């Protein structure tokens, strides 16, 4: 009984788009019934009532009672017909046993997501995919702007041998935003193992199926951006994924070497330098931004940077001048999600202030309006680790709005939890919207 009431409440939730059409259906039936009744009345006045009509019409009963009886029969017939129609359509388009409760819940969630805020996420790597896995439960209006500076692993090999943009980070984001089809997502993420007797590294060994799929699709469609869009359609992703630029950019870093400043070439080589990173930059220095990324930023309700590798995943997109200008021009709140823990080779020993200083040194002060940092410090990292938790000390002295929340994965406290992180962002945004509406 409780389950039935819950299902009914889902169907009747405002904004589901169900009640209006059901009411319109009943209104149409009423008009049909009135038309039929008027025709029968004229027919009866012309020929008189046959005896069997009087019996079927229950003329011995009061009119109000007859109206209730026939109305109830009509409602029952219509309801049964709609139920059977629902079962037939469910079996035709959705595999499995028909379940009205599941269908109502699915429609409710889809309606909720379609009305969700327009969120632009900027970054790459595992941090971006972690955030997207959580956000897709709250909104379909997601645009992920992904760095294309990757030059390591499968992506690097494809980039070097075929001259395509690196598909690895984009592949991870597509898998993160994919609808819950576990087998298709696993296929997209499948990596071909290297044979023990193969020392050449040739062939598909070490490549992921998704990287090869996107690369092949780029050849078929004639463009990398269309290949990304079509790949998203294949996996029915919630939102869209776009590259920061379509130019073949290379990431460089200046590090504080023993004999002065030294240059390190390549995104994959930068984390392995033994020296502190002073700054990173792109070659060519002023790549053109992908137009879809600019449109999404200017239309966004919320812009989010991170989480992810500060120098090799987050900053490369901000070093594209048009993207940086669009972010500054946007009126949307801009949140930097600081990593839960430091990263070996990039942010060794960094405090929260150090992360902020690194951003400001590259893009200037006031680039973001808020910073989200983990506030759950009850799960320290293993003592044997060289990493450190990023602690929000002196938060009241930081010239940004601070959002402190429990966003860690308690099983792996050096990483964000997708659901916690997305919930913290959505709840903060909803609170800000309510405050803005009150001020207006």
Q: Spans of 5+ residues with little confidence (pLDDT < 50)? A: none
Put simply, the count of helices is 16
- The total count of strands amounts to 12
**CATH superfamily heading of the largest domain:** CofD-like domains
CATH topology category name of the largest domain = Rossmann fold
Alpha-beta content class: alpha/beta
> What composes the largest sheet?
7 strands, parallel
> What is the helix fraction of residues, given as a range?
40-55%
**How is the quaternary structure best described?**
single chain
Rg result: 30 Å
Order of helices and strands: HHHHHEHEHHHHHEEEEHEHHEHEEEEH
CATH architecture of the largest domain: 3-Layer(aba) Sandwich
Rough shape? Answer: elongated
Domain count: the total is: 2
What does this structure look like?
With 440 residues, the chain is of the alpha/beta class. It has two domains: 2-104, no CATH class; 114-439, CofD-like domains (Rossmann fold, 3-Layer(aba) Sandwich). 49% of the residues lie in helices and 14% in strands. It contains 16 helices and twelve strands. The strands form three sheets. Strands 3-2-1-7-8-9-10 form a seven-stranded parallel beta sheet, sandwiched between helices. A three-stranded antiparallel beta sheet has the order 5-4-6. Helix 15 links the parallel strand 8 and strand 9. The model has no long low-confidence stretch (mean pLDDT 84).
Give descriptors for this structure.
single chain; 440 residues; alpha/beta; Rossmann fold; 2 domains; seven-stranded parallel β-sheet; three-stranded antiparallel β-sheet; 16 helices; elongated
């Amino acid at each position: 009984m409780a389950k039935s009431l819950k299902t009914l409440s889902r169907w009747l939730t405002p904004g589901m788009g169900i009640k209006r059409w059901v009411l319109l259906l009943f209104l149409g039936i009423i008009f049909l019934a009135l038309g039929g009744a008027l025709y029968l009345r004229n027919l009866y006045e012309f020929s008189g009532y046959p005896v069997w009509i009087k019996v079927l019409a229950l003329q011995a009963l009061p009119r109000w009672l007859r109206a209730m009886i026939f109305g109830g029969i009509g409602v029952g017939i219509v309801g049964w017909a709609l139920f059977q129609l629902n079962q037939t359509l469910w079996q035709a388009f959705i595999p499995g046993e028909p379940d009205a409760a599941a269908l109502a819940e699915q429609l409710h969630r889809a309606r909720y997501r379609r009305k969700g805020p327009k969120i632009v996420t900027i970054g790459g790597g595992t941090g971006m995919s972690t955030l997207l896995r959580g956000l897709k439960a709250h909104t379909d209006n997601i645009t992920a702007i992904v760095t294309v500076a990757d030059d390591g692993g499968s992506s690097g090999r494809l980039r070097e041998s075929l001259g395509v943009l690196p598909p690895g980070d984009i592949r991870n984001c597509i898998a993160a935003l994919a609808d819950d089809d576990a087998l298709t997502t696993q296929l997209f993420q499948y990596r071909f193992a290297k044979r023990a007797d193969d020392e050449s590294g040739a062939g598909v060994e070490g490549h992921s199926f998704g990287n090869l799929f996107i690369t092949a699709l780029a050849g078929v469609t004639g463009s990398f951006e269309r290949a990304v869009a079509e790949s998203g359609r294949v996996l029915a992703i919630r939102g869209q994924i776009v590259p920061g630029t379509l130019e073949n950019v290379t990431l460089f870093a200046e590090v504080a070497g023993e004999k002065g400043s030294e240059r390190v070439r390549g995104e994959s080589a930068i984390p392995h330098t033994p020296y502190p990173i002073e700054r990173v930059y792109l070659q060519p220095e002023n790549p053109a931004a992908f137009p879809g990324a600019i449109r999404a930023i200017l239309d966004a309700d919320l812009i989010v940077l991170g989480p992810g590798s500060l120098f090799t995943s987050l900053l490369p997109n901000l070093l594209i001048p048009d993207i940086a200008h669009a972010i500054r021009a946007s009126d949307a709140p801009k949140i930097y999600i600081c990593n839960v823990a430091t990263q070996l080779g990039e942010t060794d020993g960094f405090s929260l202030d150090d992360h902020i200083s690194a951003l400001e040194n590259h893009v200037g002060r006031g680039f973001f309006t808020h910073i989200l940092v983990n506030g759950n410090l009850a799960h320290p990292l293993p003592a044997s680790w060289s990493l450190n938790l990023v602690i929000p000390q002196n938060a009241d002295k930081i010239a940004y709005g601070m959002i402190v929340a429990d966003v860690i994965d308690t099983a792996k406290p050096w990483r964000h939890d997708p659901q916690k992180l997305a919930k913290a962002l959505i709840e903060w945004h909803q609170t800000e919207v309510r405050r803005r509406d009150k001020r207006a």
